[in-house]
Amino acid sequence: MDATLIAPYAIPVAFGRRPHPRETADINAATGSVVDLGETPFLLTAAHVMEAALVRMRESRSHLMLGPVELQLDSHTVEIDPARDLATARLTPKERDTLEADGFYIVRPFAWPPPAPAAGSAVVLAGYPGPWRLQLSWDELDFRSFVILALVHEVWSLGDGNLIVKYARVDHVSRSGHIGRG
Distance of CA 177 to CAs 8, 97, 165, Å? Predict the structure, then answer.
């Protein structure tokens, strides 16, 4: 399996104050994926990311971007599971369609939650690390990403849906996710 086929599932998330020409950018960055189970599509990201985003959204001039899509989030559209460090936010079909039109892929699993990984399964690790972010101009950011494709060697169940997975790296690619005037 080629990691370049997986990279478009990692969508940059950026939140904070709207850019201003006379201010330094004050933006947080993270990674998310969009999952569509045939009803309401949703953003899947880390709980610590969503918690920080909800706090930042209360600041004046703040906004949240998922790739090219500006999201309006509040506690009614967001579910957070701090124990698993997972969060979801409901999206509209139009927001999902805009992401697809911009080249991002939507996860459409056969079952949810997905089954536990088995030995030999492919695992993808992806992200947009903050230190790799480039501020091109006062209103334009370039997000550099990584995608690592790995194979599962062993899986240990800790009960209650928690797993430990030992894996080995197979492939790695980098991609740029652009937010701004582009």
Answer: 9, 17, 28
The DSSP 8-state label assigned to residue 4 in this structure reads G
Tens of pLDDT, residue by residue over 81-92, are 998 889 999 999
Nearest to 177 by CA among 50, 9, 43: 9
Token representation of residue 162: 């928690």
Q: What is the pTM of this model?
A: 0.75
Residue 122 tokens read as 């492919």
Q: How many domains does the chain have?
A: 1
User: How many other CB atoms are there within 10 angstroms of residue 26's CB atom?
Assistant: 14
Q: Which two tokens stand for residue 166?
A: 């030992």
d(Cα 146, Cα 136) in Å, to the nearest integer? 20
Radius of gyration in angstroms for the set of CA atoms belonging to the chain, rounded to a whole number: 17
Does residue 23 fall inside a structural domain? no
Please give the residue range of the domain that contains residue 129: 3-18+28-179
pLDDT in tens, 126-175: 676 767 777 777 777 777 766 666 777 666 665 666 656 666 665 554 44
Tell me, yes or no, whether 140 lies in a domain.
yes
- Write the CATH number for 90: 2.40.10.10
